[in-house]
Write a structure and sequence with these properties.
7 helices, single chain, Rossmann fold, 9 strands, alpha/beta
Length: about 220
């Protein structure tokens, strides 16, 4: 990224992602991150949560829509966004009767009505796709959508603080995740999953916006 390029401009990433989706056409196997199923770690986490009873959820960088559809299946009223128009078109084609409200949207220019509007926000693999100078602003933009008492679920490739990222997707450091805390959230859960076989090392974290003076309980696992 050029030194004078605005690091907040998510639209600078559009050609790369939109090109991948458009070039793949209906060959979803050509999209590296397309599993055509909800993320299993998210599914496991949702299994442990109370019934949403119609709570609003937001899925960041929804891709082909599987995580958004999983949340909707469980009873959330889901809004999902992606920067790629082709990705959103595929969501409508794959789930023509979906209750999910899909949007082509720029993370750094979200509608004002989404501010502190969601009980659950899902962020999987978006931060790791962004250049490092964008991550603090990205975390702040995501955090801004969480309502008091709400949570953001984060799943990303991991690296140590001070460890240089080698190639895209660029793993996320614990220090970069603290951007959610700087944006007013509290760390409620954190797990560092070591690399195993073909899978990389991952962080799974949950950040919560307190309802009031009491902080949410923090649970940590390894």
């Amino acid at each position: 990224m050029d030194a004078d390029q605005d690091p907040r401009r998510d639209t600078d990433q559009l050609p790369a992602f939109e090109e991948i989706y458009a070039r793949a056409g209906q060959d979803f196997g050509a999209i590296p991150w397309a599993a055509l199923a909800a993320n299993p770690v998210l599914v496991s986490w949702l299994d442990q949560q109370p019934s949403p009873t119609g709570d609003h959820a937001l899925v960041i960088g929804c891709g082909l829509g599987d995580d958004a559809e999983e949340a909707a299946r469980r009873g959330y009223r889901v809004t999902a966004l992606d920067l790629s128009p082709t990705a959103i078109r595929h969501c409508h084609e794959r789930f023509p009767r979906s209750a999910v409200d899909y949007h082509v949207a720029d993370l750094f220019h979200l509608p004002a009505r989404w501010n502190e509007a969601f009980s659950l926000v899902v962020e999987i693999r978006t931060l790791q796709s962004l250049p490092l100078p964008q991550r603090a602003d990205a975390a702040a933009a995501i955090a801004a959508t969480v309502r008091p008492g709400g949570q953001v679920f984060v799943r990303c490739l991991a690296r140590d603080d001070g460890e240089p990222p080698v190639s895209r997707p660029w793993p996320v450091s614990r220090g970069e995740l603290r951007g959610f805390i700087k944006a007013g959230l509290r760390e409620a859960e954190f797990a560092d999953q070591p690399a195993a076989e073909a899978h990389g090392r991952f962080f799974t974290a949950v950040y919560a916006r307190p309802r009031g003076p009491e902080l949410p309980e923090r649970r940590e696992s390894t």
